[in-house]
Write a structure and sequence with these properties.
By secondary structure, this protein is mostly helical. It contains 4 helices and no strands. The longest helix has 19 residues. It is elongated.
């Protein structure tokens, strides 16, 4: 993103006048150090989880999935 147009473009995104395309969102996510799905979270807790999960290793994510699935099965019983 050209530096001279960055501020006006961000202002338009924030005001809802324009929506960034997926490539722009990827660039913004990289610049901000957040995962792409961060922009689609509906609340603070979900956004925080998205960031924490993005920082996990693949094996940590798999363990989390198993833990959550087990927890869900336990609560259904």
């Amino acid at each position: 993103m050209d530096e001279s147009s960055a501020s006006p473009r961000m202002n338009q995104y924030e005001k809802g006048k324009h929506t960034p395309d997926i490539n722009t969102l990827k660039l913004l996510a990289n610049e901000l150090g957040v995962p792409l799905n961060y922009f689609f979270c509906e609340d603070e807790a979900t956004a925080k989880l998205a960031c924490l999960i993005a920082d996990m290793s693949e094996s940590e994510r798999e363990a989390l999935i198993l833990t959550l699935e087990d927890s869900t099965l336990d609560s259904e019983a």
